[in-house]
């Protein structure tokens, strides 16, 4: 992979990287399509990274559909697929980790200790191996995208981190490889995350700016679904991911909710239309 990337750089080509854990869906494809508009070659990686799963998480049962994924990537016009084995990425004696402090400890980091350290370590390695001009990430994992952007800035990486919109099912459910875990009944319940965010969006559009009020109505909506158990439902500053009292600058409304045993995340991004405007623009 390094040799191939080196060759592309020598030819002054613009390299795009789309890191994934496989079990590909239209969310991943949207990143690849964007990559193809902006880069050539586009390289997709498939690596179910053991270091970002906690001991009681779903590493062993995470869906692995390599043959199907390879066909999808070929049809999508990806130039190369990088699918290393865990033993290649973490050979015996591996002992160097990348950790973005502060941002990695909140929200997802609090619920999943060590998760972001695993993510930043593997993404750093992928960026180091391929040295892409652009690396594409989904806003579905908003905190992850923010942390990787911070890492790229802090470590003077030459790769630009591009964050792309969330792709959803027609009923609003954000696409996720983990949706495959949902039973038919759970699948019907899962769009409650989207509906809760959509209700928050309506309240914000109607002028509500108090974070506690928004959180209360999010909880009420989510609690009305018997199969849902809320892990967190928060309104945070889009830079620091610290809770806000009032919405007055770019913010995320972030949800992590168990539907049965499956933990789903989703979010709504909002920012003032212009610096002194009270009107908000939503990215959903
Ligand atoms: P994963 O394979 O789950 O690690 O995801 C690989 C990349 O795809 C990450 O940057 C995710 O944020 C992104 N992604 C996952 N689901 C979606 C979605 N529904 N819409 C947009 N991007 C997504």
Helix content: 25-40%
What is the spatial order of strands in the main beta sheet?
3-2-1-4-5
Sheet with most strands: 5 strands, parallel
The pLDDT mean sits at 98
Which percent range describes the beta-strand content?
A: 15-25%
Q: Note poorly predicted spans.
A: none
Distinct bound molecules: adenosine monophosphate
**SSE pattern:** HEHEHEHHHEHEHHHEEEE
Distance between the termini: 35 Å
Shape: globular
Radius of gyration: 19 Å
How many β strands by DSSP?
9
- Provide a count of the helices: 10
Briefly note the structural class of the backbone. Answer: alpha/beta
Summary keywords:
alpha/beta, single chain, 284 residues, 4-stranded antiparallel sheet, 5-stranded parallel sheet, binds adenosine monophosphate
Explain how this protein is built.
- The protein is an alpha/beta fold.
- The chain is built from ten helices and nine strands.
- The strands form two sheets. The chain has a five-stranded parallel β-sheet, with helices on both faces. A four-stranded antiparallel β-sheet has the order 6-7-8-9.
- Helix 6 (115-130) crosses helix 7 and helix 9 runs antiparallel to helix 10.
- The longest helix is centred in the middle third of the chain and has 16 residues, at 115-130.
- The structure holds adenosine monophosphate.
- Adenosine monophosphate (AMP) is lined by residues 20-21, 27-28, 30-31, 137-138, 140-141, 166-167, 174-177.
């Amino acid at each position: 992979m390094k040799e191939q990337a080196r060759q592309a750089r020598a030819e002054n080509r613009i390299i795009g990287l789309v890191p994934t854990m496989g079990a590909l869906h239209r969310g991943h494809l949207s990143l690849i399509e964007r990559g193809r508009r902006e880069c050539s070659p586009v390289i997709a990686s498939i690596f179910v990274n053991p270091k970002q799963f906690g001991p009681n998480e779903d590493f062993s049962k995470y869906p692995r559909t390599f043959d199907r994924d390879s066909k999808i990537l070929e049809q999508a016009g990806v130039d190369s697929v990088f699918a290393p084995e865990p033993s290649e990425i973490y050979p015996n004696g591996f002992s160097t980790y990348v950790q973005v402090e502060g941002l990695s400890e909140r929200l997802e980091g609090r619920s999943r200790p060590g998760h972001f350290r695993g993510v930043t370590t593997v993404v750093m390695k992928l960026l180091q191996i391929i040295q892409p001009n652009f690396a594409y990430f989904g806003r579905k994992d908003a905190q992850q995208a923010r942390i990787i952007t911070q890492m790229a800035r802090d470590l003077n990486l030459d790769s630009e981190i591009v964050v792309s919109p969330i792709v959803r099912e027609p009923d609003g459910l954000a696409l996720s490889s983990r949706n495959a875990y949902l039973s038919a009944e759970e699948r019907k319940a899962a769009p409650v995350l989207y509906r809760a965010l959509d209700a928050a969006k309506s309240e914000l559009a109607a002028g509500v700016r108090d974070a506690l009020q928004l959180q209360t109505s999010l909880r009420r909506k989510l609690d009305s679904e018997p199969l849902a158990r809320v892990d967190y439902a928060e309104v945070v500053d889009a830079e620091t991911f610290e809770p806000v009292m009032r919405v007055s600058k770019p913010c995320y409304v972030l949800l992590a909710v168990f539907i049965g045993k499956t933990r789903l995340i989703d979010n709504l991004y909002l920012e003032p239309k212009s610096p002194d405007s009270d009107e908000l623009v939503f990215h959903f």
